[in-house]
């Protein structure tokens, strides 16, 4: 990339235009941010360089001006750019961190190199985490305002009164024994998971569990089958571990590998059979059997992500795939992020017996197991029935919110836009025509104060085969749902 001098400021839209690709599944603001940030980091946009006015940039790219404003503000916030009233926005003279180090290297005459590894740069550039994690219609967030904080703080005080040095020192196991016991009982009773406490490994979120799975069961270059569209968190973790990602289609019965794909068994497959994320497909019993047989025959590991099956509103859920597995091929993942609150960062793996020792050692080698006192509290919360009570209560709350969202959509669009997602979970997918640019819709909605995720972002394929918006209703009250959908509908009306 050639540096752009001060006089060539007007050429910037060209420089951005070369890289900017609307509809590539990334939000417009994220894409523009990534391109500009990359330009600054690689000194293609030198210190003092004036960025074009937001209106000119927006027109050149065919995106909303607000999107550009938002990106400039983010660059300023991070110290990469500076803004003065009436002066416009400039690349910062002394941006912190990375840029500072690049400049220092330049001054010393050394090579200008990114401090990031190739893997690090890929990870950061591909990052898709949402700019907002609260409010209508952020997917995957539960109603944390109804969390029984009083009960929790009582249990927490009790745990502190009874604290021992072991609770506060480095932990060396696979989780607090009382929590592992409580999880095993809960799963046996509600999800048909066949396990005892010795098979449960407590992790700091599903992401940490996936990190262990990727590093312990696969080598760099090994292939992993991913549902497509599918969970971007798993995709990011497997990609960062150097695995080769292979998107696999879905049909009405769940994961549907082609005949060609079946001929080349992968090392791992990642599934969400109870409530496919994000489309909501419930994997049929027949498909479960077929995949288990296939996995046993070809020694494929199945990673079963059972992230929100507590919230099923009509039919009873099918028991977990893990409960049908007689060959020890399934690793079952569960989380407290949806049932309690995401920042708790407690999740678990249920492992085939012969993997437990290795996973426990690796967990301690890489991270050191922790949060022991929180685990003590959580174990009591489960044992004393508060957990089951909270889930029962929230099931009613989410069912009503889901109904409100469906009503808002159908009142405005009838059946013209399909709604996907079985009778479960904390989100729905609003289908858009295949030709729609769902990333642009999501961007405009965000500028109007409504957070959605484009369905194309969940796909590894380019162009993404299906378009839509993932709408989370878990953390949004019914009046908020109606008001936010009105704003979203105004954006949608310009596109469909
Ligand atoms: C498909 C899926 N699995 C798992 C999780 C939970 O991840 P964690 O336990 O790291 O919060 C999420 C959260 O968004 C999810 O969408």
Automatic annotation (TrEMBL):
Protein keywords: DNA-binding, Pyridoxal phosphate, Transcription, Transcription regulation
GO MF annotation: an example: DNA-binding transcription factor activity
PROSITE patterns assigned: HTH_GNTR
InterPro entries recorded: Aminotransferase_I/II_large (IPR004839), HTH_trans_reg/aminotransferase (IPR051446), PyrdxlP-dep_Trfase (IPR015424), PyrdxlP-dep_Trfase_major (IPR015421), Tscrpt_reg_HTH_GntR (IPR000524), WH-like_DNA-bd_sf (IPR036388), WH_DNA-bd_sf (IPR036390)
Pfam families, per the entry: Aminotran_1_2 (PF00155), GntR (PF00392)
UniProt keyword Nucleotide-binding, yes or no: no
Protein name as annotated: GntR family transcriptional regulator
